[in-house]
From TrEMBL:
<keyword id="KW-0732">Signal</keyword>
<dbReference type="Pfam" id="PF01547">
    <property type="entry name" value="SBP_bac_1"/>
</dbReference>
<dbReference type="InterPro" id="IPR006059">
    <property type="entry name" value="SBP"/>
</dbReference>
<feature type="signal peptide">
    <location>
        <begin position="1"/>
        <end position="22"/>
    </location>
</feature>
<dbReference type="GO" id="GO:1901982">
    <property type="term" value="F:maltose binding"/>
</dbReference>
<dbReference type="GO" id="GO:0055052">
    <property type="term" value="C:ATP-binding cassette (ABC) transporter complex, substrate-binding subunit-containing"/>
</dbReference>
<protein>
    <submittedName>
        <fullName>ABC transporter substrate-binding protein</fullName>
    </submittedName>
</protein>
<keyword id="KW-0813">Transport</keyword>
<comment type="similarity">
    <text>Belongs to the bacterial solute-binding protein 1 family.</text>
</comment>
<dbReference type="GO" id="GO:0042956">
    <property type="term" value="P:maltodextrin transmembrane transport"/>
</dbReference>
<dbReference type="GO" id="GO:0015768">
    <property type="term" value="P:maltose transport"/>
</dbReference>
Amino acid sequence: MKQFFLKWGSLLLIVFSLTACSQNTNGITTVTLSGWQSNPTERHLIEQVLKDFEAKHPHIKIDFEIITDQYMDVIKTRLIGDAAPDVFYLEAFEAPLLMSYGVLEPLDSYITAEFDLADFEPSLLEAFRYKGQLYGLPKDFSTLALFYNKQFFSQANLKTPPKTWQQLRKYSKKLTVDLNGDRRKDRYGLGITPELARQYFLMKAFGGELINRKDYASFATKKSVKGLKKIVEQYQKDRTAAQPSDVGASSDSEMFGQGKAAMVVDGNWAIPYLKETFPNLEFATAEVPSINGKKSTMAYTVAYVMNKKAKHKDAAWKLISYLTGKEGMQAWAKGGVVLPSRRSILSELGYIENPLYAPFIRGINYATIWQAGINLPTIRTHFNNQFLSALLGQQSLIKALQKAQKDANKEIQAADY
């Protein structure tokens, strides 16, 4: 990925955009906007907000495009070819690379006191700062929390959700059901997703890190093993945890909804999915049980960013400021798939008082943002491949981490030359 921009870096600095924001002879300025679609409801809401924006700004037309596949690859290719949109979605996960290569417009000079930047969750803003400048305004966020089946808890005489990871492990044993006496259970206590984006907070709880100061992978440590070992032991030794593929499900949300797992650690995006797909399911949420005596979870966020080569930057800023302003954010943040990044909107829409959403909101105060330097996409791929191998017992956890780290750094080093 890094060489992707190095090869064309000089071109990006000298060629002006020919296909970005354009102005017609009738005085209408067109701003191009690209994003993805989490679900049809979200698309409907954002399209309605864009119509409201155009009504308030009759001289600006929004050309909105949904990129359905390989979103970031498409964006990067268009940046190289000077065909990138004026405004686009950018995950915190991918942000360091684009910020460091100077293809985004710094937003600090556009922001006024009236915009009320202090209303945003501070940690979300920090995910889009680079060398003291702000390059993106977070439109939403999601964290992880514990989902638990209230009916199964009642059957096991469990009255409250687990507070610590040790309790969660005990609960999982009580909630696992094996009617046939074979290796595969009829119901598991915990459903897991064996991916770095879901497991990083376990490593962090014991002081583990993903990268060193030079952005090379450095996660193959005893500290990281301590955190990840909890999942591996529960899967291999206790046999009270399962991944979706073990029970024929496509996601942890689905295995939870089907009753194949009594608990899962999942994002708030699962709430509307569970309500719509499994309307008879009785479930509740709680904060992720503490690990190593600390509260811990993950946070994921997406921002609106401006193309450095947007031709009509004032119009592009008006769009960004409306979408991330109080009026625009309140209008589209009603679906519950993601949470608005402004504290005032979280309150006004009732999320803070809603018992299903409250644990996710509390989690943002201590969450680990899913971000770690420009090489995280490479690191994630190698980690996921080897961690799954360790989970299945094909190699030890420490050997899996060492191999993943070695292979990731080999690829990163090759990209540096």
